[in-house]
Structure formats: C-alpha cells, structure tokens
Amino acid sequence: MNETTDFGFREVPKGQKASLVREVFDSVAPRYDLMNDLMSLGIHRIWKRIFVNAIACSPRETLLDLAGGTGDIAFGALAAGAKRVILTDINAEMLEVGRKRALDRGIVERIEFVVVDAEHIPLPDRSVEKVSIAFGLRNCTDKDAVLREARRVLRPGGRFHCLEFSKLEVAALEKLYETWNFRILPEIGARVAKDRASYEYLAESIAKFPDQPTLAGMMERAGLERVAWRNLSGGIVAIHTGWRL
Where are the domains of the chain? Predict the structure, then answer.
C-alpha cells in the first residue's frame, strides 16, 4: 500500500505516477514536436530515422508502437513498408495530435489509434510481429511489466525495439550535458511552452533511467533473447533490441 516510485527526482506513491505523467503530456502535447526540435537541436529526427530503419517492418508485418505519442515512429514505419501500425499511448491528447497529423498526410486509414497503458496491453498473446517504444519507457511506472507485456504480444520470431535516453559514454561531455538538461531545457520549456515544471520532470526522468547494461538485463529477465544495444550520439540515446524466440 505504501510502495513508491520515481517521478523525476521525487518519490511518489506508485498509484499516482501514471496520472502525474498524463498531466505532463497533456500540458506539452500542443507543442511537443516543436519542443523536441528545440531540445535536441533537431537531432531527434535522425535518431528516429535510424530507429525506424532498425525496426525494418515488412509489408507482411504489423507494428505495435507503445507510447507512440504524436506518431513519428508510426509514420516512419508505414513509409518504410509496414503493413499496419497500432499506435498507442496512455495520453489521449498526444494521440489526438497524432491523428490530426495522420489526416493531414492522408494515412489515417492505415493506423489504428488506441489509448493504452503499456503495462496492460489489450492484445492477445503472440499477435504482432514487431513492438516499438521510443522515449516512452522511462515514463512508465513498472518498466518490467512493460517489457513482459511486449514479449507476450510478440509472435515467435518477433522483435522488440526500444529507443531511449541512456548513459553518455564520453565523460568529458557530462558537465555540458547536465547543464543542457537541467538548466537550458527547463528554460526553453518556460519560454516556448510556458511550462518549466514539465520540462524539469523530463530532464529528471532522463537522469533516472537505467543505463544500457541495466536495461539489457531487465529485457532478459522479461524473457527476451539475443538482447543487444546500439549507442547513438555517444550514448545520449541507445537502441535496445530483443527477440521472442
């Protein structure tokens, strides 16, 4: 009853984290894509392009995109040849932005939009070929449950892909990176999105996220096999992958 979990650098009751995260993304949804460009100096687009290429969905495969927000990974997967994408997020406001973007692109009929808590995926066992989650796992209360659910819904031979902020490899850049995350990002949030607190949380959630080997171990404990990771931009982010065999 008294279990707690991290919400950035704060400890909060486990049952409260999902609603707190939902409030953050309700607030940032209208300017989410602009803020991503500003916060990463546009590099997030390159990371996501590499991620979509790593997913490599074929015309025979369905991708379940968890915490898919405004649709960047879903749109990229469809453009790369995926048969179908199930775009999910716990936040309806984010999905609505994604739906409007899909309508503008004329691809809304190829995407199923579903409000989903990634810890409780409403799909049958062994029902999709690929599962992805980009910059969303760190916001989940029970990350181990998300990984178990991802494996459960994968068909044998299916693959899980995670793109997430990780542990910087270059020690000499750590101070600069910390300054960017904890001073500059909240200031950008305050000036552009009129919301400093949400961007302070986002910076804190990056710092609290498990490093590359720790996340790989969590994936293996969830039953995923041949787990591997690839660092991008010196470990600022990493792509983790694992198979259901």
Answer: 4-244
Q: In the CATH hierarchy, which top-level class contains the domain 4-244? A: alpha beta
Cα–Cα distance measured from residue 156 to residue 175, given in angstroms and rounded to the nearest whole number: 43
Helix (H, G, I), strand (E, B) or coil at 120: coil
Cβ atoms < 10 Å from Cβ of 12: 15
Radius of gyration of the chain (CA): 17
Contact 76, 49 (CB under 8 A): yes
Nearest to 132 by CA among 218, 11, 241, 43: 241
SS3 12: strand
Measuring CA to CA, which residue among 190, 28, 19 is closest to residue 97? 28
How do residues 10-65 score in pLDDT, each as one tens digit? 888 988 888 888 888 878 777 777 778 888 889 999 999 999 999 999 999 999 99
Which residues are bridge partners to 239 per DSSP?
A: 163, 230
pLDDT at 168: 94
Residue tagged 């068909």 (tokens): 155
Q: How confident is the model at residue 2 (pLDDT cuts 50, 70, 90)?
A: low
42-50 — which CB contacts under 8 Å span 24+ positions? 43/233, 47/163, 47/232, 47/233, 47/237, 48/72, 48/73, 48/76, 48/134, 48/163, 49/76, 50/232, 50/239
pLDDT, tens digit, 9 for 90 and up, residues 148-192:
999 999 999 999 999 999 999 988 889 999 999 999 989 988 888
Sheet of 128-134, strand order: 111-115, 84-89, 62-66, 128-134, 154-165, 237-244, 225-232
Let me know: does 7 contact 20? Beta carbons within 8 Å. Answer: yes
